[in-house]
Request: fold
Amino acid sequence: MELSKKLLQLGFSPNQASVYKALIELGQCKAAAIIKKTNLHRNIVYEALEVLVEKHLAFKTSKGGVALFQLSDANTLVQDAKSQLTTAQEIAHEINSLRQKSTHEIKLYEGVGGLQSVRAKTLNELAQETDPQKKELLVLGADIKLAEQYYNMVFKKNDEERAKLHIPARLLFPQNITNTHTNQVDASPLTQVKLLPQTMHDPTAIDIWKDNISIILNDIEPFIVSIKNQKLADSFRSYFETLWNQDTAVITGLEALKKLRYQKLHALKKGDQFSVLWGNYESGTGKELFPFFKEFHKERVKRGICLQYLGFEKDRELLLQEMQYAGDPELQLSELKFSDNYNESPMQIEIYPDSVVLFYWAKNEKAVAVDIQRRDIRDAMKLYFDSLWEQKVFVLNGIKNTKKLFHRKLDEMKAGEEIQYMWANYGDETKKELVPFFHDLQQKRAKKRVSTKVLGFERNRAAHDKNNLGNYEQKLIHEDINSPLEIDIYPDSLSLVHWGKEDTIAVDIQNKKIRDAMKLYFDSLWNQDTQLITGRENVEKLVYQKIEELRKDDISYVYGGQYGEKNPDHFFTFWCEVNTKRNEKGARLHMIGFEHIRKELVREVQSGDSKMERIELRFLNQELLTPALTIIYPTSALLILWDYDEAMAIETTRESARQMLLKHFQSLWNIAKK
Reply:
């Protein structure tokens, strides 16, 4: 008998036998040599090599970064056969120890006909069962060759008949079974499929139902041992449930991780959604993983599966390329968000309807995944994801990222929409670099036919005039105001930008209410229906004037700002006096302060009302601090920027603006702490 047939008798698949023979003839060699020798597809060769290495029939080494394969000692074949014999002896021993003379029955079946008979008998007995708890087929393990060779002839027809009889089934397959076969079975009605731990490679399949088990072996043809024994069936059922219900599995190896990701995808139905947090992979693996991710998303889109992806700004273009390739360029099935707010994580977290998977994408065996099938952990992780997803404020650091933000915001706009730039500034340190940048940006804006209004400073007139390229209006303020922030207002968001050589920072606020409030503020300035007051003494006089206008039980709402960097003691004393006068008038105060100056603010308000009977005070974290102090009176509002030498205030009596600021105050009040 020729060697190939003998190898098949030992349980080798035809492809594995061909690769094994090639290794005998070639000795130590690269996979490419085997591919050439066998004329098999490279994927088939690599899968066969993986199985031979796992069974210790071959081993892999590396030389100069290139993988080399070589046969193990031929005696390994004998050891493998002995291992199978030992397993069969252990099963036989367990069967004999559990056997009861009056309650057991053993039958043997051979060939395809025998396999069909056993499965038909199984369905017939389950169809007659009236107890729903017992009307279920469990399948533990699978012989890959048998499962794939007889799928269409036996198992597919059996699954179709089982579905007609409304008999559910749960199957535990070994990790090395092909994706194609897993998908075929998993697609059957009333069928659930999970994979066994990576270390389990049992070549037998065991059917468990009611008080029966069938041990299905594959030699030259199928051979089945069917045993009717309640105790034995319960023992195997308990073992099956233990494996089925394990809630955490560790998977290693890049190919195994790819298979796991497809398994998770195939478990989803059209319209289902999964979430990805911090998509990332080890440096140097992108060349291999990028094509995989593209094909994965192509199949995801084809299946109608939705994606929520929250990643890093640096990966934006890469993800958009993947979605383009996948057939979802308009992002109909893909929601993507990016930020530089987060510390980069080495793990990629994927949240599915009933599980969470932590992926560490790396080369070969360094890749690892943790599959957590616990609903409580999954739900907690989803809440964490949702809190990040719903975040409305994103911080970008550095000139490079801030420039990208300007371009991205413009890219998102449509012809006819408008941008408002308030306190348009270039920064003293960055003006030389930013003037040409903004000129190029305005050229791009003009081509898109997006309108803009610029509220800037007279000292920058020359640069602003050059940017007048169509659909462009500007108004320049003569006062020499050094605003620390540029405020850019878009249709659904706004950005606060501080320009600096080393400390440029942008805050992207994706909150429509705050944007609308700032838009009203811009409009009030643009339409010149506000009063601009400059100079510290004048601003302080205005505040005293507003206090004098208050009546008993009038409420003032105060939030934002601080005591200023210059002479904070002066402003503390000033506000103590203001609060004393307010209390004398019998007026009330609702104030939102900030945690880092809690003590000072409490002392300040108590100076006029020691028992705080007319005061309600709440606090926010420092990162929500705004440079402008907002005071909302019954018929007007003030926005104050404190600077000891050149303070400024804007007063508006426009009711719509006051109401919008009041709504903003209320939204902050609701999240502030007492």
